[in-house]
Amino acid sequence: MKKAIAVFVICCVVAAFADNPHITMLAELVDVALSSPADGDVLTFSAATGKWANKPLMQPVIPDGPKIVLKYQQDNVSGIFPDTPFFTPDETGLYRVNIYVAPVGSGGSSTGGGVVVSTADDNGVFNQMFDRFGPCSGLAQDHTGMIRAVAGQPVNISAAEPFSCPYSFYVVVEKM
Fold it and tell me: What pTM was estimated for this model as a whole?
């Protein structure tokens, strides 16, 4: 038994110093086509060539989402308010306007009110978003719309139709 162990140990030492008969490098494989490997490369398979090739790892490009340009809140508003500039865009483009109205209590008649968001575009064309809110039923309501605004040109907001009950008013504007 001692003799068998000794022979085994000698064989292991000899094998360790001998050339390995097996392929140990990717470039030696017949279905791999490497060209100037670099740190971070990944292998991708090409059905056209039937080979694996190295390519740089591409990070996904995730576009920026809408950018909030204004948050506005006014509590316990009554009646109407006149045409008032509420933001002036830095960039020309599309803007999403989110309006949320919550009645304070349920007083007043059953009518709601209307909100107008307006501006003129670079051709002088007046564009607006009009939202009519329902009755003062104690239920909050929201409306969302799009406007095209020009850099440096004020965007106005007004309550064109009076609300018959006090309400809290919230606006968020996002650059698309």
Answer: 0.58
- Number of structural domains found in the chain: 2
In a domain, 87, yes or no: yes
Say which DSSP state 79 is in: E
Question: What sign results for the dihedral spanned by CA atoms 80, 73, 102, 156?
Answer: positive
pLDDT tens-digit profile of 112-128? 667 778 888 777 767 67
Distance CA 136, CA 104 (A): 9
Based on the domain organization, do 34 and 85 belong to the same domain? no
Helix (H/G/I), strand (E/B), else coil: 3: helix
For the record, the structure tokens of 12 come out as 């292991």
d(CA 48, CA 12): 44
Domain that includes residue 44, residue range: 2-56
Whether 101 contacts 132, CB under 8 Å: no
